[in-house]
Amino acid sequence: MQKPRLKFWDIWNMSFGFLGIQFGFALQGSTMSRIFETLGAEKDNIPLLWIAAPLAGLIVQPIIGYLSDNTWHKTLGRRRPFFLLGAILSSIALVLMPYSSAIWMAAGLLLVLDASINISMEPFRALVADKLPDSQRSYGFVIQTLIIGIGTWVASNLPKFMNNVLDISNEAPPGVVPESVKVAFIVGAVVFLGSILITIFTTKEYSPEEMKAFNGNAVEEEDKGMIKTILGTYALMPRIMKKLGVVQFFSWFAFFAMWTLANPALTSHIYNAPKPQIEEFAKVDENGDIQYDADRVILFNSDQAQTEYEARDKRYNEASDDVGSKMGIYGLSSMVFALLLTFYTSKFSINRRLVHMVSLILGGLGFLLMLFIPGDPEMLYVSFALIGFAWGSILSMPYAMLSSSVDSAKMGLMMGVFNMFIVIPQIIAALGGVVFLQQLIGEESIHAMTVAGVFLLLAAFSNLLITDKKAIKYEPV
């Protein structure tokens, strides 16, 4: 028994929750390092402060994948209970994040936020495989990428929109997140929960009995329990997953470098507006601690020092808004990539490996271009547009290649285990890998983007390891 082919709007509705998920990820990716810098973090320590995010994914995604494979709720179905739980927790974390008063608080909320996003996200990947026949899976993952692109672009522009259009201030006292960022995160929380609810109310899942019929009533393996099943899957993962894992390793190392260090790298190299260090302008005691008056207001060395600090901080906040806005271009170009691929794959065959390789090469060149455009913010449109082609492919092609080659009964678990190749490179980067490689090239923070470019090129040529014809070739029906 074959799964019925779905119409465009059916696939759109079941993927729409990704708009909210990407609002959470885009606000995190474009603004989190800015929050850490605002709270006093040194730029070289920022990747380590992000480590909670990939750690949450490493732990949460295989567990959620297993649980969603083995869940059936008479009203919400198999995957939708996890969509709803993750959306509620993520929305709470988004509202609280910009009100963090200390670095440890922001890092803790980042852990909660990323774990919660993962609760929603991984079942979404599995839902595409649940609902669509193999002939429509590339199409389904590309539509997800289209929606992700929309979310990335809109969410990345929210802080600048709040300041420029709604006239909500992007300035704040030292150590306080600007009001424009706070409002942007609240909007993100509302969009996250709302879009997930749209998917929940418009999408019906196949029952366990229907799934068995689609799988030809194949004999199911005995359930050995969650821990043994997950460990067994790690030990016996298919060869295609290992090969794709090499590509994923280099790809996600590159994007983690961008998310964590693009703001300090670009505000200083492109805009000449690095975050001013308050210690250079404020009065400090013999231990180097900042001094405050009776009302806990920072004491500056002079009125001139205060004016200079506020002017530099304003330039930094304006540059940060613009960096976030221009980062959103990679979401926009990934959306264009997905839209073109959606129309093409609905009628024609594609070579998934070739598409992914070319897209990653373009993204690598986009990162490398940043080194050569100091003082020219407009060229960032070109850089991030090229990066968007890589991002659009990363979000669709590996999953399409994998889903064509693994057991559909374990799709949630397989997608969760595959996530290992996403989070391990991020953990290595967070533990000092990206800063170490950057400093091998030079002390300037822009070289973090150079590292990202080199790693995307390595990811591109790693596609040559993939030889499984079923994974490479996509034929429309």
From TrEMBL:
Q: Which Pfam families match?
A: MFS_1
- Write out the entry's keywords from A to Z: Membrane, Transmembrane, Transmembrane helix, Transport
For this chain, one GO molecular function annotation is: transmembrane transporter activity
Q: Where in the cell is it found?
A: Membrane
InterPro entries (alphabetical): MFS, MFS_dom, MFS_trans_sf
Give all residue intervals belonging to the Major facilitator superfamily (MFS) profile domain.
Answer: 240-477
Q: How does it sit in the membrane?
A: Multi-pass membrane protein
Record field: transmembrane = 12-36, 48-68, 80-96, 102-119, 139-156, 183-202, 244-262, 327-345, 354-373, 379-401, 413-440, 446-466
GO CC annotation: membrane
User: Could you tell me what this protein is called?
Assistant: SLC45 family MFS transporter
Q: Species name for this entry?
A: Christiangramia sabulilitoris
Question: Taxonomic lineage of this organism?
Answer: Bacteria, Pseudomonadati, Bacteroidota, Flavobacteriia, Flavobacteriales
